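Re-running the complex after MR caught last week's input typo. The corrected sequence lines follow. Everything else is unchanged.
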Amino acid sequence: MKNITDKLAERIKKLGNPTVAGLDPRVDMLPDDLKKFAKDKPSSAKAVAEFTYKIIDKIKDIVPAVKIQSAFYEIYDEYGTVVMKAIADYAKRAGLIVMADVKRNDIGSTAEAYASAYLDGDLYDYITVNPYLGYDGIKPFTDKCAEKGKGIFVLARTSNPSAAAIQNMKLETGDTLYEHIGKLIAEWGKDLKGESGYSAVGAVVGATNPAEAARLRAALPGVFFLVPGYGAQGGKGADAAASFDEHGGGAIVNNSRGIIAAYRKPEYSSLAYYDAAREAAIAMREDLRSALKL
Amino acid sequence: MKNITDKLAERIKKLGNPTVAGLDPRVDMLPDDLKKFAKDKPSSAKAVAEFTYKIIDKIKDIVPAVKIQSAFYEIYDEYGTVVMKAIADYAKRAGLIVMADVKRNDIGSTAEAYASAYLDGDLYDYITVNPYLGYDGIKPFTDKCAEKGKGIFVLARTSNPSAAAIQNMKLETGDTLYEHIGKLIAEWGKDLKGESGYSAVGAVVGATNPAEAARLRAALPGVFFLVPGYGAQGGKGADAAASFDEHGGGAIVNNSRGIIAAYRKPEYSSLAYYDAAREAAIAMREDLRSALKL
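Corrected-run output:
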């Protein structure tokens, strides 16, 4: 039976583009004609929504998926919750796979409540989850994935500099912590594999450490990777390529500011922000196609 | 200068009770006369709020602090966000220290957005944070703590059974991962110490492993502990005592269902739910006083 990762892989193939556009809008990122309406939490949430809808319209035939960063909506309290759901709904109706980047983590009935909050209903296909609590903090999510045909991406090796002080610690077993977590992620997702061989339980693996990504890619053949760190964090298509399998599959690369705030770059400064987002998404697609020889 | 942990320690001392009551209400936990109003998300959020307000009224002179578990409000979408804020406000005005158990974790401007969402304004004195991303995922929160006089509790050794498969992994250095994280937490909070010697950056250390808690307590003299696992998860006062310093300070013990759902226990079944919560909070106070020889 097809799982959500099969559906993601099909959309990636159809568009020839393993990119997920990160929808992380901040008021200071809005063009002046929208920023002027952002006076308080309700009006800021509304301005952010308007900004984001227009970007979705312009990138929906270029990227297969969007990732909504919860923090940039929670900052507007209940107005943000409403807007986050509205944007997810808008993206779903545009045919996009929708990920909620929430990095939730808890145990027992608390994790069940998070799983219900984000994976019941039709808004989100995937959420991100933090592994620090072990399987007790994962099973409520994988149970929900099995029930509702959804997926999760579990943090393995993140793209930020200080991650190494924890994730790269060498264990007595010889593995680094991120390798140990990677093996657990493969184990946690082994019963949720789809027709493509990839599980609905994926891993977050940064583009900023290609050698480490390549080692994880080889060790975890059934685990789909969500790859942050491209663009603003310094990763390039050639770096991200380490997270892909030999057929150019098995991963999707996130870019947030590089797409939605592209209009502030000199090369796109003559364009409206939504046209700049489209051009930046096309440029990233070409970079990845070239790096992956698609 | 006093930090938030000094204020917490003062309230604990004044009430002679190192208990934080976890406000984790679920609809299936409500008494029938409230449950009957919970039909959908708005009405469920409202029923949960009414339930929780009455408990706060009855425990505010017994416990020094409450911990609000975000998951049980997020499940009601924007209605939950409104109610979570309203409960925090109600608890603050009752003189309680308020913790938001959100376990957020992210980096850079995303973590700044979370810090702003939960530590700007007057609602929450502390939030919980997950350490897996390293200092990049902590600094935005500690910066906000310094600016606003707030605090965080960072997960070190959690109370759930499967935590060991990650947190107890032995590192090449000889430390377990949770000991390594504990030392990082002490380092991250070293500039936020108050008059009592305890930092505004605390650690979550479960009551279910007293030997491990005792080892962390000895290793981390300036780190205040938030102790889950008492009651429903099996920990008793004598177990929780391992997290306290030689003066009976340095820690606060959480109890959620054991207080707010106490009315369902045989010994409290003749009481209204809020009176049962009060009696259970008093019984826990006496258990901790006895274990700590206060």
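None of the earlier attempt is carried over here. The mean pLDDT of chain A is 97. Residues 5 and 49 of chain A are 27 Å apart (CA to CA).
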